[in-house]
Amino acid sequence: MTDFSGSFSGRVRVLTTISLADISGHELQTVEITGPQSSTDANWNAARVTYWGVSDVVAGNGTQRGYYVNEREDGGRDWGTFEGKVTTNQGGTVIDGMWRSSEGTGKFTGLTGQGTYKTRMTSPMELECTWQGRYELAASTRAA
Prior knowledge:
Strand order of the largest sheet: 1-2-3-4-5-6-7-8
Structural class: mainly beta
Shape: elongated
CATH superfamily: SO1590-like
Number of helices: 0
Number of domains: 1
Number of strands: 8
CATH architecture: Beta Barrel
Strand content: over 45%
Distance between the termini: 17 Å
Largest sheet: 8 strands, antiparallel, barrel
């Protein structure tokens, strides 16, 4: 397994919020966010990440789950899932969670990996995310 880390600055492209009538402050949100990555690993540096998340929060605190895809200029892609805890206080909104790679194309076929992430909303439409983890490429694609 290879250790790696990185970050990205993301911008909300789509956001939908539904206020529920069961308890005060209960919301469901769906979001699409995209942005360029910076990484210690050349396989992820300059990749563009897009993720789709669903949050279930009460007064800004709750959970988020979703899916992501990393796309590179050469056409290589990898994708996976994530889930985290949403916390909102006077300092803003932060999401701490775990991600897991599912698969990829090209040299990322057979990719396995997992790690953690921390996202901080810097404005209602922008965020900063740092992440770290480990991955392994399938033996048949390592030399690619």
